[in-house]
Design brief:
The complex is a heterodimer. Chain A is mainly α. Among the domains of chain A are: 46 residues, no CATH class; 86 residues, no CATH class. Chain A is 45% helix and 0% strand. Chain A contains 7 helices and no strands. Chain B folds into 2 domains: 91 residues, Rna Polymerase Sigma Factor, Chain: A; 105 residues, Winged helix-like DNA-binding domain superfamily/Winged helix DNA-binding domain (Arc Repressor Mutant, subunit A), CATH 1.10.10. By secondary structure, chain B is mainly alpha-helical. The chains are: A mainly alpha, B mainly alpha. At the A-B interface, helix 1, helix 3 and helix 4 of A face helix 2, helix 3, helix 4, helix 6 and helix 7 of B.
Chain lengths: 251, 212
């Protein structure tokens, strides 16, 4: 890049010379040339004056303050910006970190609501069976069919005389994912049909009394108490989930 | 002194990254004049410049997590602001002067009609005035707006806002060599534009005639 003294300097060299952005040797070569070249001196001077004009421009008056309203935190939640914001590659991981909780929150809330509704349903259906028998008579005709209870509104057809089995110890952790199965008890041959279970497909174990007992103690769905338990657990889980997601949103 | 300011700025950034609008507003107070100054010089119109600056601050707050602690916050902020100014310019100009690095030395200058009116009354200026007259400011502003966007950003950041080449490179995400080249081309183009209207210039700013 050494400059022959007989060749004119480029605008870039002159401009960089003004800002002292040339290497020492490049600058020395430029200065040697400038001493002997009026044309380049003139060009340098014109650039210098252009820069001086630009520097002399006043700062424009601020038309207003650009302070953001303090209730603007919601903006942080929205992912899309109206205009292109050049965020370089270095931003990618942090952006992902920022957004990670958001897509999880919605499914979590929906799931919690679902669980709570199912729990409520269980609770209601089992409570209904405890009511006086007005409905249980009408429903008793179909109570011995042993078919899976596919109709969702079949509440209260558990015979009132049913032997109450001791419910297994509650385990709330798995109830919402495991389709609850009645724990088969070999002593009771006419296992009552499970009551209304619309979303959880609780297939009754009537056909196969020799089902291996599940390793985890589950509440017995075939008893009213078991249903109550499941209902309470699901409802509590759902409400907990809703509370949890709500508290995170307000942060 | 400068270190205290920087520490304070880092704290404000950290608080902003946790969603603290008040902390971010303090950053706005620190930088709004600079940001607005850059945007105004780029688009040349106060009302649009104010809107763009406001949008830029909102976008900056929204993406404050993406700011890498330790780098220049000013450069990061000015990148957002200048990008939005460029977007605005492209949207609103019918014939945008896009980057013509390879053709950059070809100056096709055309003066707007109001400029010729300015030239006609040029003799009325007090040539010794230190402060630039309104007409001269308008002329320079017009010259800036004639620059292709990449040169315009570089010249505005370096020669008007006084950023170093390194900071201009960080703001525009280019190399030092590119910054050097863009600044040089922008200055040359602006000089040629102004020398066409040199009757307007105060005596100490009279530009010598170009070399042929």
């Amino acid at each position: 890049m050494t400059q022959h003294s007989d060749r004119h300097l480029t605008t870039e060299q002159l401009s960089a010379l003004l800002d002292e952005q040339l290497s020492d040797e490049e600058r020395a070569a430029c200065e040697i040339h400038l001493r002997s070249c009026r044309q380049c001196r003139s060009a340098l001077e014109s650039l210098r004056q252009t820069v001086a004009l630009l520097r002399a421009l006043p700062m424009p008056d601020l038309p207003r303050s650009f302070i953001l309203p303090t209730n603007l935190t919601y903006l942080r939640e929205r992912a899309q910006s109206p205009a292109r914001v050049e965020t370089p590659a270095l931003t990618a991981p942090t952006m992902a970190q920022q957004r990670r909780p958001t897509p999880l929150k919605h499914p979590l809330r929906i799931l919690s609501t679902l669980v709570a509704v199912i729990g409520l349903f269980f609770l209601l259906s089992s409570l209904l069976t405890m009511l006086p028998r007005s409905m249980s008579e009408s429903a008793s005709s179909s109570s011995t069919t042993g078919a899976p209870a596919s109709k969702p509104q079949q509440m209260g057809h558990v015979p009132a005389t049913q032997v109450r089995k001791t419910p297994a110890a509650t385990n709330s952790g798995t109830t919402n994912t495991t389709p609850a199965r009645p724990t088969p008890t070999p002593t009771v041959s006419p296992i009552p049909t499970p009551t209304a279970s619309n979303t959880i497909n609780a297939v009754p174990g009537t056909g196969q009394p020799s089902l291996p007992p599940p390793s985890l103690p589950l509440p017995d769905l075939s008893t009213t108490l078991g249903q109550l338990e499941v209902g309470f657990t699901l409802l509590a889980l759902g409400i907990l989930g809703l509370l949890f997601t709500r508290r995170r949103r307000s942060v | 002194m400068g270190e205290i300011v920087r520490d304070n700025e880092e704290q404000l950034i950290a608080r902003s990254q946790q969603g603290d609008v008040n902390a971010f507003n303090e950053l706005i107070l620190l930088y709004q004049a600079t940001a607005y100054g850059v945007v105004y010089r780029m688009v040349g119109e106060a009302e649009s410049a104010a809107d763009i600056t406001q949008d830029a601050f909102i976008a900056a707050f929204r993406h404050i997590e993406s700011f890498r602690v330790g780098s220049s916050f000013r450069a990061w902020l000015l990148r957002i602001a200048s990008n939005m100014a460029c977007d605005h310019w492209r949207r609103t100009q019918r014939h945008p002067l896009e980057s013509l690095d390879q053709l950059g030395d070809e100056d096709e200058l055309h003066s707007a009609s109001d400029l010729s009116a300015l030239v006609a009354q040029g003799e009325e200026h007090n040539p010794e005035a230190y402060a630039l007259s309104q007409e001269l400011q308008a002329l320079i502003q017009q010259g800036i707006q004639e620059l292709p966007l990449d040169q315009r950003v570089a010249v505005v950041l370096c020669d008007i806002q006084g950023l170093s080449y390194e900071e201009v490179a960080a703001t525009t995400q280019t190399t030092l060599g590119t910054v050097r080249s863009r600044i040089a081309r922008g200055r040359k183009r602006l000089r040629d534009y102004l020398s066409q209207h040199k009757e307007l210039l105060p005596r100490q700013y009279r530009l010598p005639t170009n070399r042929e």
